[in-house]
Design a protein that fits this description.
Helices cover 81% and strands 0% of the residues. With 179 residues, the protein is mainly alpha-helical. The chain has one domain.
Length: 179
């Protein structure tokens, strides 16, 4: 079997950045923005951080997707012939689609917040009582979704680890004979 270091690296580094960046922003940036000074400063700081993260996140997601397709092509025989690999691939595909959907929706909500400018906020996702209704609603949704993306991408990390275990020679042999 040929090495496919490039596609594996794109897959893994892209996923690591997607997971780690969104988790770091949820854990650190959003709450820290509340310490920026006044309520308008909190919204401005959070918006600036998320707006800077967006192109990096898009590149990470793109790298992950390119690497995923490369891995699928490289291991297509195992997917069709080794017991359990097609099921794992299906789970990874569904998790990826869910993470992409939530990420895209979160970005759309984030754009609502960002386009509103220095919206009064208690933190990156906690609206103040002075925030406009549509911005406060977007922030309230983002407050919950900020944890969904790392949960989904973290699940992808776990399933990817499982996929790596399926590549052990003993697992390949067992999976091929089980079919």
């Amino acid at each position: 079997m040929a090495r496919n270091t490039l596609s594996r690296s794109l897959h893994d580094v892209g996923l690591a950045a997607w997971f780690g960046g969104t988790l770091a922003n949820a854990v650190a940036l959003n709450p820290a923005a509340g310490e920026a000074g006044g309520a308008s400063d909190a919204g401005r700081v959070a918006n600036a951080g998320w707006d800077r993260w967006t192109p990096v996140n898009a590149a990470a997601i793109g790298a992950h997707l390119v690497g995923s397709v490369g891995q699928l092509i490289a291991h297509r025989a195992r997917v069709s012939q080794q017991e359990g690999v097609a099921g794992m691939s299906t789970v990874k595909t569904l998790l990826t689609a869910a993470a992409l959907g939530v990420t895209a929706y979160s970005r759309a909500l984030g754009k609502v917040v960002s386009d509103a400018g220095g919206t009064p906020s208690r933190s990156g996702t906690k609206p103040s009582k002075r925030a406009r209704a549509e911005v406060a609603e977007a922030q309230a949704k983002l407050d919950q979704l900020q944890w969904v993306i790392p949960a989904l991408t973290g699940a992808l990390v776990v399933v990817s680890s499982y996929a790596g275990e399926q590549q052990r020679p003993s697992e390949v042999a067992r999976g091929l004979t089980a079919r």
